[in-house]
Amino acid sequence: xxxxxxxxxxxxxxxxxxxxxxxxxxxxxxxxxxxxxxxxxxxxxxxxxxxxxxxxxxxxxxxxxxxxxxxxxxxxxxxxxxxxxxxxxxxxxxxxxxxxxxxxxxxxxxxxxxxxxxxxxxxxxxxxxxxxxxxxxxxxxxxxxxxxxxxxxxxxxxxxxxxxxxxxxxxxxxxxxxxxxxxxxxxxxxxxxxxxxxxxxxxx
Length: 204
Description:
CATH class of the largest domain: Alpha Beta
CATH topology of the largest domain: Structural Genomics Hypothetical 15.5 Kd Protein In mrcA-pckA Intergenic Region, Chain A
Largest sheet: 5 strands, antiparallel
Radius of gyration: 18 Å
Order of helices and strands: HHHHHHHEEEHHEEH
Strand content: 5-15%
Helix content: 40-55%
Distance between the termini: 28 Å
CATH architecture of the largest domain: Roll
Number of strands: 5
Structural class: alpha+beta
């Protein structure tokens, strides 16, 4: 499956927020807090079109969770078919991706790193190895790192140094084991995205 492999800081500067959560992006945003490109510093920000705002919100969400345009559009289409608020459904589906659960649990420093753990077969769901990052967990699922992965230096470092507290919808049920206690609510999803603008973009 394809994924973005270009310069991360450039995307973060374009969208005005640290997308992947790396130190390099933070430094780039501090040093050059304006869009990239020859005219980035002098570009006028007053006349921003409605379409540009909607597109930027969509790109924030898409890059944050590491999806292609087709994957993101498919998730939106499914969210719009389900009962409830489309924007909330969309974010809930994104949060329930297995690679995101690994990230939320604090085992991966970033979502791309968490995605790699899943791709390389280091994650079990309900006792079975799962190698699909987009696998959607359900309420009651038990997610854990396999024994070999628990001894990785990077995993130990992430667990000790990051000290990331899992959101309320996830419950720690043992060392490197987490249970999906409930489906996430909008107030439990802390990404800086205005999902209503994404709904308006795709509803045109």
